[in-house]
Amino acid sequence: MIPIKEALSELLSEALKKTFEHALLDSDTASSFETPREEKFGDISTHVVLKLSKELKKPPRALADALLKSMHALLQGAGLGARISKISVEGPGFINFYYSQTEIADVVMRVKNEGDSFGRPKGLRRKNILLEFVSANPTGPLTVAHGRQAALGDSLARILEFCGHKVTREYYNNDEGVQIETLGKSTYLRYCEIKEGKSLEIPENFYRGIYLVDTAAKLIEKKGKNLSGMSENQIIEACKNFAKEDILQGIKKDLKDFDVTFDSYFSQAELMISGAVEKVLEELKTKGVVYEKEGAVWFESTRLGDDKDRVLVKSDKTYTYLLPDIAYHKNKLTRSDKYDFLIDILGPDHHGYIARIKAAVEALGFSKNTLEILIAQLVTLYEDGKQVRMSTRAGEFVTLREIMDEVGKDAGRFFFLMRKFDTHLDFDLALAKSQTPENPVFYIQYAHARIQSVKNLFHEKNKTLVWDEKCLPRLTDERETRLMRLLSQFEDAVLGAEKTLEPYRLVPYLMDLAAAFHRFYTENRIVVDDASLTNARMMLVETTQQVLRTGLRLLGVSAPLKM
């Protein structure tokens, strides 16, 4: 039996041809289907006539009524008579389909049969994707803002892989440049403080965090003998090299404990040494998209959609950060792995970066659509109702490690994903730590654990679950129907996350599913004297647990069996 959405798409296409013979119809009728926000408007709805009304110059409601008659005539022939209980026209012209109880309950066996792969969208074109995220400069520990980018990137990678895409996770390590030179000087001052046994004045533009005291202490412990006899400049260079590697190792440890891994760490220093930056500059010159003005070399990015031209080489002959970034993206697009789609996840200070780097990609001969840049907005942290202020250079910042220590990995990841990535996020520490229904991650995990306790009780009574679809007609209670409807919507939630590159799409879905289960559990006994009803309800809770587990896994959150 073909999936209901596919069957309805075929029915709709046939009805459109029969009703509007001369209309320029969109062949992809499936794209017009959506799940209504309220269940009273059916299980699935189409707005296809709203598209047609302008072309046919007729009111959409009249078109919908005509289309409805055609669908009713075709319904039995399409084999949908037993799967659809009602079709109605609502509002300005929405056509709503109401599934039969048999069709609603069918999801239980589908979850059972598909197991961990249930919810995987069908028919997607497989892509080879390079996903770059976090990419924090190795000048200090990962902060709360980096934590949001890490949760977003890793969860997105999990979702894309679940949908069948191949994903390579990459961290761009900006291990050279002005900031790294400042790191070396900042570490040297801490080194001097330890050696001289007194505090020294740290310039305003230096990194002032206390973490560099620990880094300098480790440097002395591991390299102290080698530093004796060196000049000041040589010691500063040693401080720089040691500090950037020490901090990078700390970053990797934090990411691992946050359940985030990378396939590669790409070094900007190695990119510079390779000559790739000079080569891409020459290529841009050859393509005629650079010019010289006031001693500097400019990228004529306004020709390709940017709001102003950008400096690539300053008048002092040093590169701006843009030129190595262009070389890096050229490297991505020309690797032997042959990636057909690039995703960059960047912080909120990179809004202006989007147009210029897309212009560069186009200038190099690639489609702008090859690259998608996501901007993860700022995080405001609240503690005891008060905002925690953060300033990286001054050392007054909250690290990702502190978040993990305070609320745990699961709550940290989930709370970072609780808002769309392009909106500001308020992170409430007290709520994240609480074990109450108001804490969404606790509420969802508790639903999963609660189901496990039901299963344990079932088995303690020496009962064995029999996966018999003949029991499913017993599931007629409104709370049972609500659960099954939500289970059938999981694929749409996953597909929405894949298409929008937005893991948040799974958050409200899982919250709704957990709420529906808790209500069902509270108002219905599951293990009852009626063996057939008990078996049907156990099938339902087993499949609910499966979908909760899959959804949490895609967000990188654990699914505990006991809480």
3D architecture notes:
- Helices cover 50% and strands 12% of the residues.
- By secondary structure, it is an alpha/beta fold.
- Helix 12 links the parallel strand 11 and strand 12.
- The radius of gyration is 29 Å and the shape is globular.
- The mean pLDDT is 93.
CATH topology of the largest domain: Isoleucyl-tRNA Synthetase, Domain 1
The main pleated sheet reads as: 5 strands, parallel
| The CATH homologous superfamily of the largest domain | Isoleucyl-tRNA Synthetase, Domain 1
Extended strand count: 15
Strand order of the largest sheet: 7-6-5-11-12
Mean pLDDT: 93
The structural domain count equals 5
Strand content range: 5-15%
| Structure classification | alpha/beta
Low-confidence stretches: none
Backbone shape: globular
Would you spell out the secondary-structure blueprint of this structure?
Elements: H1 4-19, E1 33-34, E2 44-46, H2 48-56, H3 60-75, E3 84-90, E4 94-99, H4 101-114, E5 128-132, H5 144-162, E6 166-173, H6 178-196, H7 211-227, H8 232-257, E7 264-267, H9 268-274, H10 276-286, E8 290-293, E9 296-299, E10 310-313, H11 322-333, E11 341-346, H12 353-363, E12 371-375, E13 379-383, E14 386-388, H13 400-407, H14 409-416, E15 425-428, H15 429-433, H16 440-460, H17 478-488, H18 490-500, H19 506-523, H20 531-554
